[in-house]
Each structure stands twice: as structure tokens, then as C-alpha cells.
């Protein structure tokens, strides 16, 4: 398991911290990253991202004193998109009949941001290309450059780190170690270096479990594959 850094954990009352504490029953501890949790370097010029929204705002304005209005507008857009994402994700947890009725109303605010390209949003705020490059320098965290990424996704990530970042004490493997006892106590089993040979199905064609390469079988009401569509449909499922 690889982890670079995780935001929203320095505050013990944050939902992210509460989720990790609940899943690990408090076994998982976190160390804060240095105050400068990110540094963007362009042509030998370094731009530091300090922990704390107000400090980040002030630092960006110090770097780009003529762009104060654009920086404020950018931060406002990021916060608005991140706030709207709460209802967007909450809709995923609703029962399907309720989701069909309420879903459009819960999604629309976030989709206003998610349906726009990051470069387009930033370009509407400023023409300073270096400022745009700095503000979108974390794009590696979500995998698409600003000309291709959804501003909604960019905003969620940027907002996630405004308060700084943390790393698990003892390394990334402690996340799995902290959660494993809870999974096993509730009847789950964790197996590693274990190849799945086939997804088992019922005569009606529903997934019913998995058969391992060593012949063991695990039965389950739900099977989730993250092996990709090509492997899942072409190799793990019976062709029929």
C-alpha cells in the first residue's frame, strides 16, 4: 500500500479523522507533515504551500501581489465546489428509490463545477500562466493535467490539503494493520499474494464468490473486482 500524504487528519474532530479512528478503533496514529507540505518549482522558482488556509492565501498573494483578486476568487470556487460535493456523495448512500427522486437535486450543485475543465475555470479568473501552474501543481494527486481534469475533482483535492497533511506513524502498512482486526472480527478474511482464478456465478448468472488459484473458494453475496474490465470480463468470468 502506497501513501504519499493524507489531509484533514490534524483536526481530531474532522470527518476524515473520525472515519480512520472508527475503522481502526484508534490504533492508527498520524504524524503531521512539515509545515510546508508541498512545494511547486517552476524554472528554478519555488512556491511553498504552508498548512492553513489563511497562510496559504497570504503566501500566494506574496508571490503574486497583482493577483490578489484572482487568488481570493480561486479559493472561494474551491471551497464552494468542495462544500457542494458533500450532497453529491451523500446521494450514493441513499436507498435506490430515494436516490432516484432526490438524486438530481443533490447532485446539481457539484456538477456545475465537476462538468467544467480546471484550466477553463482558472483561465476565467486570471491570465497569469505561472499562477495557474502553481495553483494546479498538485494535479499528480488526481492524475490528469489541468487541461483535462474536472475542476470539481481538483477542488476536492486542493481543499483536502488546505489544512496541511499527515502520514501514518510506522508507515503506510499500519493502515491495513489497524483495520484488519475489525474486518476479521466481523467475519472477513484478508489474504495476500493470493491469485483469483475465477469469479463463481449462480446458474442465473449472479456473482456468488471467487475460486483461488490454489483451489480455495470464498462465497459472498457481493463480489467487487478492481482488476479492470478486460481482466474481469475476459479472464475471471466464465465466457458463457
Description:
With about 240 residues, the protein is of the alpha+beta class. The protein has 2 domains: about 35-165, no CATH class; about 190-235, no CATH class. The protein has helices at about 15-25, 55-65, 70-90, 95-115, 120-125, 130-135, 150-160, 175-185, 230-235, and strands spanning about 5, 30, 35-40, 45-50, 165-170, 195-200, 205-210, 215-220. The strands form 3 sheets. Strands 1-5-2 form a 3-stranded antiparallel beta sheet, with no helix packed on it. The chain has a 3-stranded antiparallel beta sheet with strand order 6-7-8, with helices on one face. Helix 3 crosses helix 7. The longest helix is centred in the first third of the chain and has 23 residues, at about 70-90. The relative contact order is 0.14. The model has no long low-confidence stretch (mean pLDDT about 95).
Into how many domains do the coordinates divide? 2
Summarize the amount of helix as a percent range. 40-55%
- The Cα radius of gyration reads 22 Å
> How many runs of DSSP E, i.e. beta strands?
8
Q: Kindly report how far apart the N and C termini lie.
A: 35 Å
Q: Helix/strand-derived class?
A: alpha+beta
User: Main β-sheet, in a few words?
Assistant: 3 strands, antiparallel
How many H/I helices? Answer: 9
Spatial order of strands in the largest sheet: 1-5-2
List the helices and strands and how they pair.
Elements: E1 6-7, H1 15-24, E2 30-32, E3 36-42, E4 45-50, H2 53-63, H3 68-90, H4 96-114, H5 118-125, H6 129-135, H7 151-160, E5 165-168, H8 173-185, E6 196-201, E7 207-212, E8 217-219, H9 229-236
Helix pairs in contact: 3-4, 3-7
Amino acid at each position: 500500500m502506497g501513501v504519499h500524504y493524507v489531509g484533514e487528519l490534524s483536526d481530531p474532530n474532522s470527518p476524515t479523522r473520525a472515519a480512520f479512528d472508527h475503522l481502526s478503533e484508534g490504533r492508527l496514529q498520524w504524524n503531521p507533515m512539515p509545515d510546508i507540505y508541498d512545494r511547486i518549482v517552476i524554472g528554478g522558482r519555488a512556491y511553498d504551500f504552508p498548512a492553513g488556509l489563511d497562510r496559504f492565501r497570504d503566501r500566494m498573494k506574496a508571490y503574486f501581489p497583482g493577483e490578489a483578486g484572482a487568488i481570493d476568487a480561486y479559493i472561494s470556487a474551491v471551497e464552494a465546489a468542495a462544500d457542494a460535493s458533500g450532497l453529491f456523495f451523500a446521494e450514493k448512500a441513499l436507498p435506490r428509490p430515494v436516490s432516484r427522486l432526490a438524486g438530481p437535486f443533490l447532485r446539481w450543485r457539484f456538477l456545475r463545477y465537476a462538468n467544467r475543465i480546471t484550466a477553463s475555470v482558472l483561465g476565467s479568473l486570471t491570465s497569469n500562466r505561472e499562477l495557474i501552474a502553481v495553483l494546479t501543481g498538485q494535479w499528480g494527486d488526481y492524475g490528469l493535467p489541468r487541461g483535462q481534469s474536472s475542476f470539481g475533482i481538483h477542488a476536492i483535492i486542493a481543499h483536502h490539503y488546505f489544512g496541511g497533511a499527515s502520514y501514518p506513524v510506522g508507515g503506510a502498512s499500519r493502515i491495513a494493520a489497524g483495520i484488519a482486526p475489525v474486518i476479521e472480527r466481523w467475519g472477513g478474511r484478508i489474504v495476500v499474494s493470493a491469485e483469483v482464478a475465477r469469479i463463481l456465478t449462480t446458474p442465473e448468472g449472479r456473482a456468488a464468490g471467487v475460486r483461488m488459484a490454489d483451489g480455495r473458494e470464498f462465497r459472498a453475496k457481493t463480489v467487487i473486482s478492481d482488476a479492470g474490465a478486460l481482466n474481469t470480463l475476459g479472464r475471471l468470468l466464465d465466457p458463457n
